[in-house]
Amino acid sequence: MESCDCIEPLWPTDELLVKYQYISDFFIALAYFSIPLELIYFVKKSSFFPYRWVLIQFGAFIVLCGATHLINLWTFTMHTKTVAIVMTVAKVSTAVVSCATALMLVHIIPDLLSVKTRELFLKNKAEELDREMGLIRTQEETGRHVRMLTHEIRSTLNRHTILNTTLVELGRTLALEECALWMPSRSGSTLQLSHTLRHQVPVVSSVPINLPVVNQVFSSNRAIIIPHTSPLAKIRPVAGRYVPPEVAAVRVPLLNLSNFQVNDWADLSAKSYAVMVLMLPSDSARKWHVHELELVEVVADQVAVALSHAAILEESMRARDLLMEQNLALDLARREAEMAIRARNDFLAVMNHEMRTPMSAIIALSSLLLETELTPEQRLMVETVLKSSNLLATLINDVLDLSKLEDGSLQLEFKAFNLHAVFKEVMSFIKPIASIKKLSVSAMLSPDLPLSAIGDEKRLMQTILNICGNAVKYTKDGHISLLASIVKSDSLKDLRSTDFHPVASDGQFYLKVQVKDTGCGISPQDLPRVFTKFANAHSEGDRGYDGSGLGLAICKRFVSLMEGHIWLDSEGVGKGCTATFVVKLGACDNTNAYQQPLIPLAWPSHGDSDSSGPTAPKEDRGLSSLKPRYQRSI
User: Fold this and answer.
1) Distance (Å, rounded) from C-alpha 442 to C-alpha 600?
2) Which residues contact 12 (CB under 8 A, 6 or more apart)?
3) Whole-prediction pTM value?
4) pLDDT digits (tens, 9 = 90+) for 247-299
C-alpha cells in the first residue's frame, strides 16, 4: 500500500487528441444547429401539431447545447477571460433550459400516452370498419344471389318448375354437391323425397315425421347444420371412401298444398312444412358460412311465397274453369227454358183460339137449350153440361191469366173509367146467384169516393168479382157486404207490412175494397196459404165446393201489379171471412163523360127476390146467366 501511487500523474496535452476533440465539438455544434431548423420546417408544414411551446423550448435547449460546444472550440488553446465568461453563461443557460425541458416532459408524457391510446382505438375502429365493409360486400353478394334466385323462381307459376328451379339455382350459386326436398305425405306421418338436384329420386324414400332431427328443423326458423348420418341427409348413393360433407337443412312453409298431387302427397298436411336439405361437396374442408345459411333461409321463404302464388293461380284457374262450365250449363238451361216458354206460348195460343171458341159455343147452345121444353131428365143433363162448361171456361181463363202473370207478359191498361159503374156491374153479376141462395147482398160506397179514376178497369173488376164470387160460393145463409172507400193519408202507415209500403202522392189515391160474408170461414193455420196456387184452405166439411185454387192467387198478382196489397181475416171455421185489398189508382179530373144516373147500390134483405131473377131454386141456373157476361167483361 505504501508503494501504491493512487493519484494518476499529470499527462501532457496530446495535440492529436485535442485535434480530434476540436473536430468532434465542431460537428456536434453543427448537428445541434441543424436540428432546430428541421423542427421549424416540420412545424410549418404540419397543419396541426400539438405542444408547439414544448418544441420551442426543446429547440432552445438544443441551440444552447450547440453554442456550448461551439464556444468550447476556443478553450483548447490559450484564451481570454471573455471567452471563459461566455462559456460559463452558455453552460448555465443550457443547464437551466435542460432542467425546464425535463420538468415539462414529466407533464407531457401522460398526454402522449393518451394520444397513443387514441391511436390504438382508431386503429381498432379502422379494422372493425374493414370487417363491416366485408360483411356489407358479402350481404350485397348474397342479395344479388337472392334477387337472381327470386327472379328465376318467380319466372313461372308451375309448382314443380318452381321447386326444380330452386334446387338448380341453389346448387349453382353455392356449388352444392346435392340438394333435395322432402315433402309431407298424405297421411302426414312421413316425409317423402320428392325432388333432387343430381341423383334420381328412389322409388320408395321416406322418413318418419316424428324424428328428433325433423322436429328440430320444424321448430327452428333458421337453417341448421344436421349430421351427415341423419336420415334426411341420405339423398345420394354412397360410393367409395369420402370425407363426410357438411349438411344443412331448413324448413319451407307450405301455405297451401291443395292439388299438389305427387305420389300420395297430402291435400292439407297437418305439418305445414317441407324440408330442404343442402349438402356441400365431399372430400373438401369447406364449411357453411353464416351468409350462405342466410341465403338459404331467404330462398326458402321466397319458395314458400312462390308456391302460395302458384296455389292461388291454380285455384283461380279451377274457379275460372268451373265458372265456364256453369256458364255453359246456364246457357243450356236458358235455351231449354226459352224452348219451354215457346212451347207454353204455343199451348196457350191453342187454348186461346182452339178451346175457348168451342167452349163459348157449348155454353151458348146449352143456355139456349135450357129455354126450350125439356123433360126433367133432359134438363138435368143440360144443366150439368152447362155447369161443367162454365167451370172449364173459368179454369181456362184463370190458367191464361196466371201464365201471363208468371212470365211478365201481362200489362195493365191504364185509362179513365167510371169507378161507380164497376161496383154496379159487379153487383149485377153477384145478385142472381145470391138470390138463388137466399143471401142478402149490400154495397156501400164512401161519400168521398170519386166517380171516375184512372187504372185497369178490367183487372179491377175481375178482382172484385173473384172475391165476391168466393164469398157467395162459401156462404150458405146470411149476408154479404161490400164496402169501398178511399184510404186517408194519415191511415196509410196502418196498412204497411213487410212487402207493402204505401206512399201518398199527388194525382193518385188508394182504393180500399172490403168484402164481408157469414160463410164457412177459415182456420187461422190455413190463412197463410190461401193465396197459394192450387191450394184449398177451407175446412174438410166444405169439400162440396168446386174450385181450381187459382182465383185468389190471380187476385194477389193483379193487386200487386196495381201497387196494392190483399189479405184475409177470419176468426175461425164457421165464423165468416173478410177479404180486403188496397190498390193504387189515378185521380181523374174530367168526370163529365161519366156523369150518369146510378141506381142505388142497396139490395133487398134476406128473403127478398129480384123480379128479373130466375125463380128456380137451382144454383146452376144462376151460373148460366152469370158466366157469359163474366167472360165478356174480362
Assistant:
1) 10
2) none
3) 0.43
4) 999 998 886 554 444 444 444 444 478 899 999 887 777 888 888 888 888 88
